[in-house]
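Second attempt. The first submission of Dihydroorotate dehydrogenase (quinone) had a stray character pasted in from the spreadsheet, which I only caught after the job came back as garbage. Lesson logged: always re-copy from the clean sequence file. Corrected sequence (342 aa) follows.
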Amino acid sequence: MYKLLLRPILFNFDPEKVHHFTFKMIRVLSKLPLFSSMFRGLYQINDSKLEREVFGLKFKNPVGLAAGFDKDAKLFNELHDFGFGFVEIGTLTPKSQEGNPKKRLFRLKKDSAVINRMGFNNGGVEEAVKRLKKNKGVLIGGNIGKNKVTPNENAVEDYKICFEALFDYVDYFVVNVSSPNTPNLRELQDKEPLTKLLNTLQEENKKKPSEKPILLKIAPDLTDDQLMDIIDIVKDTKIAGVIATNTTISRKGLKSNITLANEKGGLSGKPLTKRSTEVIRFLSEKSNKAFPIIGVGGIHTAQDALEKLNAGASLVQLYTGFIYEGPKLIKDINKALIRKSV
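This time the job returned cleanly.
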């Protein structure tokens, strides 16, 4: 129904406006008991074969919603009804910020892709915490970043603020230093500043009665040498794992018109499918499966998800594939996993 009826209508309008409109509609419909139970009946699959235990957490199923969709933790309970095993909120920053000027979100229909240069637009971590207090049992990841105005030399403090504010309300953390849409952010992926950042967060983590898993989200544009550095950093800092990958700055092989394809920002969707899987496989093989990996990037079919899991991912996440394929994709992946386990 989504691809045949809803998507053709929604795709005629501005992507960011459609995103906000869709949020409002889901929220309104989910308040009606009939619709909420209908969503769960249509899309949720409860089967022990889907359960996973990864970095000490029990996941109902291995298909999650990637960060960026529910930035401000406004719809995580409702989105969980579509069958996601977990929902990652954010990226959140200490202070609210508008993000980059509009227009900043673009559909590349010929490529089944999206370019975004949102720029960590969010209402600030404290506003998200108010909503997270209303969690109805959803496993939540907290994706954290720095404010645009914070210089890199002070970035650690921003991440610490978000870590402290979210600690009691999320199940795991994701350190985002790989978005291409905040100036100079990706410089924090260099070995020295990244090690310092992760060690600082781990020190804060150890002060807690019970530690929370900390993961690192990396860019698909890293070289093999940089990926080897990531493996060393994970080992040295003893963080829980890696999310591979964020959006890409590459525009290789796009079919869309050159003006649209050359919009600044991070590219997600089908053009990222192969590269994100390559990064997963590289990290898994070169580290000898030393840490869990959440695979994300270009998952538009159940087979795409299986390939990432076969490459070494323990869990997968959707974003652009969810936009293009709808919630049926979550069910398709979980059904494929059940068939595979039989």
